[in-house]
């Protein structure tokens, strides 16, 4: 059985970042991608990764992303130094992320099922008996 590279990449990028300190990056322009955020915040020693959130159907950026750090002091320094600095064509708005408060562990454990659609019964015409 072989597993494709895009499948593995999808699994790895969808895993929650654990044991890190996350920074919310708002007001990102369309030209900002993961690489731009990575280059912007890689000067901090405990920088882990950066992710720009994109619309699944269009692939366009939603205007925000996240940057993770292994150390809380680097998060505080980045928040102080980088808030309002230009990243791409716009000044970036930074806030400490509250991502741990948003995880619904019960929902993650439940199997994903879709409700069954009810079929509409078409009335039969006089010609079809």
TrEMBL record:
Pfam families: RRM_1. SMART domains: RRM. The keyword Iron-sulfur does not apply. InterPro entries: Nucleotide-bd_a/b_plait_sf, RBD_domain_sf, RBM42_RBP45_47-like, RBM42_RRM, RRM_dom. Keywords: RNA-binding. GO terms for molecular function: mRNA binding. Residues 21-99 form the RRM domain. This is RRM domain-containing protein. It comes from Aegilops tauschii subsp. strangulata (Goatgrass).
